Amino acid sequence: MDSAASYSPSSLSPHIPPFSRAGLTSLAASNENDSETSGADSTDGDEEESIDVNADPRLRRIRLSRALGIDWGTDLSFSFVYVRDLEPSGAAAISGEVEVGDQICEMRAVSEDGKAINLIGAPFDGVMGAFAALGRDVREVDLVFFRGTKEELKGVCAGGTGSEEEEKITITVVQNKGAKDEAIRRIEAKTGCNVRQILTDNGINVYQSLTRWTNCKGKQLCGTCIVNITDGGGGTNRKSLDEASTLRENPESYRLSCVTFAYGDITVETFPPIEAAQW
Question: Strand pairing partners for 226?
């Protein structure tokens, strides 16, 4: 599920997954000009803040008209913004250098005082704000893109190649709490995983009553895949306004598993007691 540029999550206080903050600057250049990529000029005094696109072959710096024609998107963490779609008549599509799925890493206004803005892992609102803040006299921008997944980009930022084994988390699942058949399972999963998907893939039912067969299949339409995150809730994405409204009569730790993403170890209770109004 994506967040397109037409959607403004400004009220959601985006949650950035916990990984090395120092890694976000590990791609910074020491003072070397990038003379081999797309003809973008360097700016004196700011080069040490720029990403060295020679650090990884999947990085590329491109100079484009500010009328990019890019539809931006994110996952439900509302960070790590990528190219969701391209307008055929836009500068990005015409250049032939940008593809759907490319991750935005840096922006620099082509002007005398243009400075590199690191956008790796930035929240959606932060990226949109950076473009909105461009001066009226700015006609072109230098952009750095990474061609790969968010996990691969995080791997490169952490000093690896991005092709190494992805970071793992543990999801502890408490089923039928308080009943005679109470059971506890521990599932190893990739960081950033969708809670509903992981549970159902492991044969754990998150739906109560007949909704086990009549649910919306994870499209956030039925509001019935409710779980209780009893521990580690701070390592999940924050609730959207829609999710908070759906669960407004329930404890704060209750989540719709279909729109909950885990970035750290969590404990999940299935079939938590819910208010009658939920149905």
Answer: 256
What is the per-residue DSSP string for 129-149? Answer: HHHHTS-TT--EEEEEEE-S-
The predicted pLDDT at position 149 comes to: 87
In terms of DSSP bridges, do strands 168-175 and 266-270 run parallel, antiparallel, or are they unpaired?
parallel
Q: What is the phi/psi pair of residue 67, to 5°?
A: -80, 75
Mean pLDDT estimate for the chain: 77
Helix boundaries (H) for the chain: 91-95, 124-132, 150-157, 195-201, 211-214, 241-246
H helices, E strands: number in the chain = 6, 13
Question: What are the phi and psi torsion angles at 145 (to 5°)?
Answer: -115, 155
Tokens of 69: 């024609």
Q: Quote the CA–CA distance of 83 and 219 in Å, as a whole number.
A: 22
User: What's the pLDDT score for residue 21?
Assistant: 33
Q: How far is CA 252 from CA 11, 57, 145, in A?
A: 17, 44, 38
| Residue 210, pLDDT score | 57
Span 30-79, pLDDT tens digits:
333 333 333 334 334 334 468 888 888 999 999 999 999 999 988 767 78
Q: What are the two backbone dihedrals, phi and then psi, of residue 202, each rounded to the nearest 5 degrees? A: -100, 20
CA distance 185 to 144: 43
Phi then psi for 212, rounded to 5 degrees? -60, -30
pLDDT given at position 96: 93
**What angle is formed at CA 131 by the lines to CA 129 and CA 137, rounded to 5 degrees?**
130
Q: Give me the pLDDT at residue 276, please.
A: 57
Enumerate residue ranges in the chain where pLDDT < 50.
1-48, 162-164, 279
